[in-house]
Every structure is written in C-alpha cells, then in structure tokens.
C-alpha cells in the first residue's frame, strides 16, 4: 500500500505541477491552472528530466519548418528562453517566454524581441546583429540562398525594417522624443 501510494505520488510529481509552483506561475504568467498543467505535461513528455536542451528545440523547429535549416535561429531563440544562461531551459523559463510572446504587453514583447536581436547581450542591437537574425529567419523558412538579391535579400530587409522604424517614430513623436526612443530601443 505504502509502495503503491509513493509510486502514485512520484508519478503525479512528474506529470503535474505542485500547488506552490502552480500559484507562482499563475501569477507570473497569467495562464490558468488547466493551461499550465497541459503545457507542463507536454513539456515533461519531451523532456522527462525537466530540462529542455537546444537539441530538443532543433527537433521541434525542424518539425514546423521541414524545408528549412533551423540551427542558426534556434541558437538565437534558445538564448532568450534560457534566461539564466545555464545551457538548459527549465519549465519555468519555457512557460515565462511563452506567456510573454502570446499575451504579454507590447512593452514586454518589445523587450523580448530586443533580447532575441541582441545576440551578444551587450544591451545594444547592431545592424549586424539584426542582419544575422533576419538571415537566420530566412534559413529557418528555407528561403535563404546566396543568389537572393534586391528587395528580398536579407540585408535589404534590414534596411526596410530600419526605414519603417524611423517612419513609425516620425509619425507619432517629436524629433527629441524620437531620438530618445530610438536610443532606448537600441539599448534595450
Ligand atoms: Ca536556464
Ligand atoms: Ca548587441
């Protein structure tokens, strides 16, 4: 009886979050209990030891983008999910990132996107970093070829993004505000 009870208890531990974990994640992620338990169950199925590795990320992205090469993009996105930079993504890190990208505020989403582009984590996004991430997105979709030229080339896309950023700021801000905001964005 004791053995059966402890067996059930250990099974419950690996397939469900406990009360304290649930309460903490409900308040930090705004996911409901059922949603969290579902995410947790799926996470533990892919990563029974509770640690998601870069290899698992590659596998998942490879399933979604079978025609592309997910490796460069996975390197960048894994870096954002792995917030304490210890080389693995725990469920807490995973669900926190999912919460920000699905229903976070615009501000939180921008900060998250900034971390994706700030590859060397120095607090700035350089044009080269932007180009590297855009190229990785092309590779993910299987659309990157050295022969791609003109408006569809990654460096041209980055130029268009920078122009759009300038225009969006021009329409809503004074020159001083614009410069200030631009500096903030580039610093994160
Ligand atoms: Ca980590
Ligand atoms: Ca940087």
TrEMBL record:
PANTHER family associated with the record: CALCIUM BINDING PROTEINS (PTHR23055), NEURONAL CALCIUM SENSOR 1 (PTHR23055:SF198)
InterPro entries membership: EF-hand-dom_pair, EF_Hand_1_Ca_BS, EF_hand_dom, Recoverin
Domain EF-hand: 69-104, 105-140
The organism of origin for this protein: Limulus polyphemus (Atlantic horseshoe crab)
Gene name tied to this protein: LOC106478301
Pfam family, one: EF-hand_1
Keyword Cytoplasm assigned: no
SUPFAM superfamilies: EF-hand
Protein name in UniProt: Neuronal calcium sensor 1-like
Family designation: Belongs to the recoverin family.
Residues passing through the membrane, by range: none
Keywords: Calcium, Lipoprotein, Metal-binding, Myristate, Repeat
């Amino acid at each position: 009886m004791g053995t059966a009870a402890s067996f059930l208890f250990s099974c419950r531990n690996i397939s469900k979050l406990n009360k304290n974990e649930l309460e903490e994640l409900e308040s930090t992620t705004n996911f409901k209990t059922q949603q969290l338990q579902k995410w947790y169950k799926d996470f533990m199925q892919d990563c029974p030891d509770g640690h998601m590795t870069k290899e698992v990320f590659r596998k998942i992205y490879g399933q979604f983008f079978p025609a592309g090469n997910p490796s460069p993009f996975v390197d960048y996105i894994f870096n954002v999910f792995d917030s304490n930079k210890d080389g693995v993504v725990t469920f807490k890190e995973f669900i926190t990132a999912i919460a920000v990208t699905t229903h976070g505020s615009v501000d939180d989403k921008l900060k998250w996107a900034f971390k994706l582009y700030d590859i060397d984590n120095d607090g700035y996004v350089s044009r080269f970093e932007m180009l590297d991430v855009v190229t990785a997105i092309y590779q993910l979709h299987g659309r990157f070829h050295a022969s791609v030229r003109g408006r569809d080339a990654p460096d041209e896309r980055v130029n268009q993004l920078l122009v759009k950023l300038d225009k969006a700021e021009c329409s809503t801000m004074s020159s001083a505000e614009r410069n200030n905001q631009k500096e903030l964005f580039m610093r994160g």
